[in-house]
Amino acid sequence: MKPHEFRRPGVHAVHSVHRFVFSVPELKTAEHFYSSFGLDVRQHGDRLDLRTDGHDHIWASVHASGKPKRLEYLSFGIDAADEATFAARIAEHGIGCAAHPLSDGQGLWLRNPDGIAVQLVVAPKVSPSEKTQIQPKTSVPAGKAAAPSRSQVQQVRPRHLSHVLFFTPDVMRMVRFCTDILGLRLSDHSGEGVAFMHGAHGSDHHLVAFAKSDGPGLHHSSWDVGSIDDVGNGSEQMRNSGYTQGWGVGRHVLGSNYFYYVRDPWGSWAEFSHDIDFIPHNLDWPAADHPPHDSMHVWGPALPEDFITNHEQHG
Ligand SMILES: [Fe+2]
After folding, report:
1. Which pairs with CB-CB distance under 8 Å and at least 24 residues apart come from 39-46?
2. The pLDDT of residue 295 is above 90
3. To 5 degrees, how large is the angle CA 176–CA 180–CA 182?
4. Helix axes 228-240, 27-37, angle to 10 degrees
5. How far is Cα of residue 304 from the mean position of the Cα atoms in its chain?
6. Which of 14, 34, 136, 222 would staple 273 via disulfide (CB 3.0–4.6 Å)?
7. pLDDT digits (tens, 9 = 90+) for 14-34
8. What is the mean pLDDT of residues 181-199?
9. Among residues 117, 163, 77, 4, which one has the least CA distance to residue 86?
10. What phi and psi, each to the nearest 5 degrees, are found at residue 244?
């Protein structure tokens, strides 16, 4: 496999979130939620694979466990040229572990500081290597009506996974791990409460992010859509499917994306995201510490009270 063309010279770093994997009590509920969200959901035995429209990559797998929702493992894509360096780093830090039993067993395995298994697998770069194109705003000449009737609105179908946000008891310890071991770079943070990290070889403003809790967990996955209308239509699509709790529509400060978060059946969230900032492989982003009251959203409704509750710790 050839390395992708956008590499930061001399840097050994993961290039993509290859997959995130979690378990839920049963699959029917998950199938309904993610199909309603506009993902391509395919069942294989007691597992669902989540793809996006027109993209054959499996971004996430959901396993049936008969137990409450739980983050199982996280997989990052790497270039073959970096594999030996990662193997040496893992050995040097003594953080190697066995492959997760729900995984394909491929690649290198290590534990992050919270004890969550992490896979590093040689794979194509699936995170964007340049700013994702937005759909041009449709405007009509004077004398015409621009909005479609409700019945004409097509289902919103996300285009790719943008990022995943995890809970952790120690955000800055996780930032150090991601920097030193995975080669991720800090984009921005707000004290020790939340931090956003991007790929050294070019990625959206955050590939992964971390929010403080008293244990690990999966807070939300975020999926790119092509327009602000798609964010709004996505929110409507979920309300029409019975998922009435959410946050948005709004615009984030850190990452700048327009968002709508819908509450999933397990108390965590899935985000429709539009026009997130992009950090090229050859740019040093000026990471900064932003005060909490000035970093969450530029505009939008008030945050739901339970938005940052970690239901994997407080079922
Ligand atoms: Fe997000």
Report:
1. 39/157, 39/158, 39/223
2. no
3. 105
4. 140
5. 20
6. 222
7. 999 999 999 999 999 999 999
8. 97
9. 77
10. -95, -15
Mean pLDDT value across the chain: 95
Q: Model's pTM, two decimal places?
A: 0.96
pLDDT at 4: 67
Q: How far apart are CA 182 and CA 16, in angstroms?
A: 11
Instruction: Please report the DSSP string for 254-310 in residue order.
Output: SS--EEEEEE-TTS-EEEEEES--EE-TT-----EE--GGGTSEEESSPPPTTTT--
Q: How far is the CA of 26 from the centre of ligand 1 (A)?
A: 25
Pairing mode of beta strands 258-263, 246-252: antiparallel
CA of 268 to the centre of ligand 1 (A): 12
Cα 49 to averaged position of ligand 1 atoms, centre (Å):
21
Taking the centre of ligand 1 as the mean of its atom positions, its distance from the CA of residue 53, in whole angstroms, is: 20
**92 Cα: distance to centroid of ligand 1 (angstroms):** 33
Structure tokens at 10: 């001399």
136 pLDDT above the threshold of 90: no
Q: What percent of the chain has pLDDT over 70?
A: 98
Dump the DSSP string for 184-198: -EEEEEETTTEEEEE
Report which residue type is found at 131: K
* C-alpha 47 – ligand 1 centre gap (Å): 25
Specify whether the CB–CB gap between 173 and 167 falls below 8 A: no
Distance, CA 88 to ligand 1 centroid (Å)?
32
On whether the CB atoms of residues 7 and 16 are closer than 8 A, the answer is no
- Residue 314's pLDDT is what? 74
Residue 165 CA, ligand 1 centroid: distance in Å: 7
